[in-house]
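Forum: Protein Structure Q&A
Topic: Joint prediction for protein chains with partners

I've read a bunch of threads here and the consensus seems to be that you should model interacting components together rather than docking separate models afterwards. I'd like to see that in practice. Below is the full input, 581 residues plus whatever partners are listed. Could one of the regulars post the assembled result?
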Amino acid sequence: MIEGVSIQMILTFTTLLFFIGLYGFVTRTNLIGMLMSVELMLNSEAINFVAINMYLFPGKLEGGMFSLFILALAAAETALALAIILQVYKRTGSVDVKEVKELKY
Amino acid sequence: MSWEQLFSFMQNEILIVLAILILMMADIFTGKEKKHYIIHLANFLFVVVFLAGLNVLDKEGTLFGGSFKTYPLVAFFKSTLMAGVLLIMLQSVTWIKKELIPHGFVSEFYILMWSSLLGLFYMISSGDFLMFYLGLELSAMPVAGLAAFEFYRRRSSEAAIKMVMLAAVSSAIMLFGISLIYATSGSIYFDQIQMASEVPLLELVGFVMLLSGIAFKISLVPFHFWTADVYEGAPTVISNYLSVISKAAAVYILMILLFITLRRYEETWTVALYILAVLTMFVGNLFALRQQNMKRFLAFSSVAQAGFILLGVIGGNVLGIKTVIYFLLIYIFSNVAAFGVVHMIAMHSGKENIKDYEGLYRTNPRLSLLLMLALFSLAGIPPVAGFFGKFFLYSTAASKGFYILVFIAVVNVTISLYYYLLPVRAAFLRRSENPIPHFKSDIYSKIGFIILALGLILIGIYSPLYEYIARLSEIL
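Posted by a regular:
Agreed with the consensus. Here's the joint model:
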């Protein structure tokens, strides 16, 4: 618990963070930038879980545990996505999402 | 929780992990020229795991304080999934020999595929959202790696990047939903969430986000855009796995979540599923009409089939569970067979378009017969199993009074009949100047195809199987 900060404020902040991430994912054309936006979304959820656990259900540890797993999985996901982005870069010579257009319709 | 309980309840998962470890060790100790022995070893190991899995069919219990649950229905479903993976593995032998052995990868393919299956197992037998989320991610990540497996092809990496990005964002959306459900109910355990909450609107937002995350895996319509691209670009074996195994597991966990955990929102999710089913059937069928590439065609057909599956899920009772499980069993057989034929033809001649199939019956009669059986089963034409599956799904929706939905589904079946018959017409009725030349499949795929053909005919006729599933489905 932080003095002077209510759960509503934290939830507003994480929701904003989540939607900024979603907006970034939709508007960015750089694959690395899209990946960063996904990280933003995942981080907002990690904060969400910790804050909910701290403020609403302080007796238990479920939310804190959950956020730990989110961090680990976000790292794994980034590693995998970066490896595939590298692969795309080798094939197309760029990390721009507009170059990834062979399969469509 | 004792050791005996751990080993008996989690036997499938532990055996798969053991098989993965054995394969890793075997890969270290085989030389570069002897990599093809790994194929035989992997197939043997998986048959052993599958047969041992029949042993846990009657076990019932929970582990890790309710995180992991097993009961006869989920054990049966795991065996079904393993049978599907085994059939896909049998088909993939030619591809591995031709495309992977020259590059020195063999065991990686099996290890990734089994890891993904392991994730699906944890997902379907999860008792809380943490296990559910971990299983979902464990099942999605290796498949993205597998989609990029033909790394020297541009389309393969393109499919993989589309899949990994969209899977990441969909699981992020789902996770936000889970955090909202946690905020309102104070627990991540499925059993404890059932109680009514004080902030229903917030929980409703969480539920919608959770549903969209699962709908992405099942590729229901507003969330289906990745399906066709990934299925076309990825190696056919992986498209097969994605369209059958991971979709079936996601449908199962969707039923568990809706029927047990989120039961009190029944009115809401009935409306949501109604809209999703109508959209999915129409968009899937209408887009499948205009496809020329067989893999894209099967991708849109699998989108449409997901819409039909929702007809059973919308029932929301024991009847819904048993018809959906039965339909999924048939769907696994028919789609694996259809993708298998497409895969074999693409492997031996490099052709993937419907036009190339003209005159197939004269050069490869047995393969085209299997293609016909599989497509008839997907379309739901009586002698093959698919008809019975679809019929039971309609009766589930009708028993709840959704007559208009059943009518829409019947209209869609009529549309789908047209495009399912296109490849059959090309193969049987058309002649061609240069048809696909005759080729011999290897022994593994032959075994797989015989099992598939028998399954397609027998599952529909052999009624004790349906009664068995009906008995297991009494879990509500």
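Chain A has one domain: 7-99.
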